[in-house]
Design brief:
It is a single chain. By secondary structure, this protein is an alpha/beta fold. It folds into 2 domains: 34 residues; 173 residues, Rossmann fold (3-Layer(aba) Sandwich), CATH 3.40.50. The protein is built from 7 helices and 7 strands. Helix 6 links the parallel strand 4 and strand 5. Helix 3 packs across helix 4. The longest helix has 22 residues. Bound molecules: S-adenosylmethionine (SAM).
Length: 209
């Protein structure tokens, strides 16, 4: 059988992705409801389940591009403060402060403290590496991002504050949980319906000690 060229393979992949997008109910809803990403529904589901966003909540959103979670937080926390960080540029959103920063290279603590003038109530991390399709490697790369989020939470998240972060389920989870138990309690996992069933993605929810 003839092998597909790289270009052709890429085209096939893009077509498949496009087909999946236009038939995906959350993608369609996000377009209809004016959300920047289908990810918005994951935060809506997380909040419906755990009820951590209130009118005055101060929210730090890591891996915020293109801004879908920030839109949801802004809507609910109308008298709170929202800051989003990503290594990518994010289009402006009223009432949200976006910072461009690679959190694996810089910790951004100073900017976070300056903006909030105190600790945050909720730290969200939807950070994800560019997946390479190798489950073990992808899992390890996201664990590294989870550790970045944990380190930041140790400095900026208030006592009893809520920590939520994306993980890809896999082998290093046990170690991560051990590490988390030093600073957090009430650890739970949740996979929103809007998270694609074929993805190993889930969210870890915990309270800061
Ligand atoms: C799934 S997207 C987030 C979607 C977002 N929650 C939304 O609703 O629009 C993951 C994001 O993590 C960001 N990211 C990955 N590594 C990062 C890093 N080292 N520092 C900052 N952001 C990072 C990516 O640039 C990407 O925008």
């Amino acid at each position: 059988m003839k092998k597909l060229s790289f270009k052709k393979k890429f085209k096939e992949k893009s077509k498949k992705w496009l087909r999946r997008q236009i038939t995906d109910i959350y993608y369609i809803r996000s377009k209809k409801e004016g959300f920047r990403s289908r990810s918005s529904f994951k935060l809506i589901e997380l909040n419906n389940k755990f009820n951590f966003l209130q009118k005055k909540t101060k929210v730090l959103d890591l891996g915020a591009a293109p801004g879908g979670w920030a839109q949801v937080a802004r809507k609910i926390c109308s008298e709170g403060k929202i800051m989003g960080i990503d290594l990518l540029n994010i289009k402006e959103l009223e009432g949200v402060f976006f910072l461009k920063c690679d959190l694996q290279k810089n910790d951004a603590i100073r900017s976070v403290e300056d903006y909030f003038q105190g600790k945050v109530d909720v730290l969200l991390s939807d950070m994800a590496p560019n997946t390479i399709g190798h489950a073990k490697a992808d899992h390890l790369r996201i664990i590294n991002l989870v550790e970045v989020a944990i380190d930041l939470s140790n400095k900026v998240l208030k006592k009893e504050g809520i920590f939520i972060c994306k993980i890809f389920q896999g082998g290093a989870q046990g170690e991560l949980q051990k590490k988390m138990k030093k600073n957090f309690y009430n650890l739970k996992y949740f996979k929103p319906k809007s998270s694609r069933p074929e993805s190993s993605e889930a969210y870890l929810i915990a309270k800061k000690i």
